[in-house]
Amino acid sequence: MRSIFTVLTLILLVGCGGSSGSSTSTSQAIVVDMQLDKSYSVYEGDRLEKTSPNTEISIKKETQSDTTTVVLLKGSSTITRAN
Known about the structure:
Structural class: alpha+beta
Mean pLDDT: 78
Largest sheet: 3 strands, antiparallel
Distance between the termini: 52 Å
Order of helices and strands: HEEEEEE
Helix content: 10-25%
Shape: elongated
Low-confidence stretches: none
């Protein structure tokens, strides 16, 4: 009886063990600090976040493509790239 309990406990512990990361993906977002007067292409899922209250950004969307370009005019901002 005692050996059955020990075997069941070992099976339970092995079954509840953590994975080594092979079945789960932990991709990290890429954060880009924008520079003044530099053009950046942004894509669907990217997040633009101003990091100072006086930030001004120019946004240009091409009508015949999915290209959107942003330029930091004043202040500070970051782009968080979607993975």
